[in-house]
Amino acid sequence: MSREDTAPVAPPTAPSARIVSHFFMTVLPSMPAVDTGSMPDRVGKTLQRSIFWLQDAPFRYRGGRASLQTTGAPGALRREGPDAAIMGRTVPVSRAPALNLRLLLATSLLFVSAAASAGPAVLLYPALGRTDGVVLQGQVLKEAPSAGSSVLSRNLRRLTAPTWKGARVEVSFLGATATVTSGSEGHFEVNLPPPEGAAFPAGLHLAQARVADVDTLARVEIVAEATPFLVISDFDDTLAVSHVIRPVKLMESALLRDADSQEVVPGMADFYGCLRAPSAPAFALVSGSPVQYVPRVASFLGRHRFPSFALYLRNLGPGTLSNYKQPEIRRLLRQFSQPVVLVGDSGEKDPEIYAQIREEFPGRVKAIYIREAGRTENASRFQDMVLFREARAAAEHAVANGLADGACVSEAFAPAASVSGGGVP
């Protein structure tokens, strides 16, 4: 292959470089070869379009052979024939003309570029607070990610939007204000006490964050002392179908779906909506999904009529790829005195994480609900937990244990009325 068949690619900017590096080192080697011809036509075409508009530059495809060379990136990927060298590793890929999903997705991550925007953007995450104070977190972006022309480009632009370290952020909530400076990757956190001599009123309120002339709002729930319990929930494969244990399906869900198209787990919104003992609990979502997806997750929850959630997602980076949920759940249990109900799925480590939390906080965990999402062979993982396949089973258990309203569950999960046809008399 001649030298001109391989063109240089501009290096990604942070956080793109970190995301691409993590993708190459962690996700890519674990993904099996997939022929896009076996995918639904829309999915295959979307992936192909994400690459082949670049045919005249860095990616060449000729009669069953392809080559891609990156320079200045965290490493280099090169493909010729049946194998690809990725950061010094050789991994098998499917032979052309069957295109390989992992090569397509990796290339998409390298070449996505956010369109010019009017200015910076600020994200403020929905949170739980107490009457004597609230901790608010968010992130500042140098450029607001553009809407993009496809779901794939929108998701990649969310993940690769350049962040702003050192931005001056003004945060306000119910008369309390503070100014902070964004830190690494544009993240900021502020602890706001109420105005002197006052207390934040219980209930749902709005907080505001402002950077330059741009501001945003987020819901904050001040948890009343009388709130019976907190629900701490996972997201992927608990509320939304994400296929976490199937890498190819997971990447499709993460990059080719959005709030409008990601599949909801049937019955979970009804289950959560019926939880009360006798009043409604407060809800916190602790998930390994990246914080850049906060708007997408919030939109998904609203679209499917889940209760209002505080969102505690993961800061995407090498130091946060494991052991994320335990510290966040511990923080919530120390911040609030209420008992908790933990809800997750069997696909990854929710049972082990929740069992550890139950051991560390004796008497605080009222129930653990685990949705079946694979890896259920070892029954010891689910000791003293409710393993359920259908949301109705979890809801009925909650009713029996005083955690949900029986009339609400009966109505929400009532069998659909049958419609019988008849002839004209």
TrEMBL record:
<dbReference type="GO" id="GO:0008195">
    <property type="term" value="F:phosphatidate phosphatase activity"/>
</dbReference>
<feature type="domain" description="Phosphatidate phosphatase APP1 catalytic">
    <location>
        <begin position="230"/>
        <end position="372"/>
    </location>
</feature>
<dbReference type="InterPro" id="IPR052935">
    <property type="entry name" value="Mg2+_PAP"/>
</dbReference>
<dbReference type="InterPro" id="IPR019236">
    <property type="entry name" value="APP1_cat"/>
</dbReference>
<protein>
    <recommendedName>
        <fullName>Phosphatidate phosphatase APP1 catalytic domain-containing protein</fullName>
    </recommendedName>
</protein>
<dbReference type="Pfam" id="PF09949">
    <property type="entry name" value="APP1_cat"/>
</dbReference>
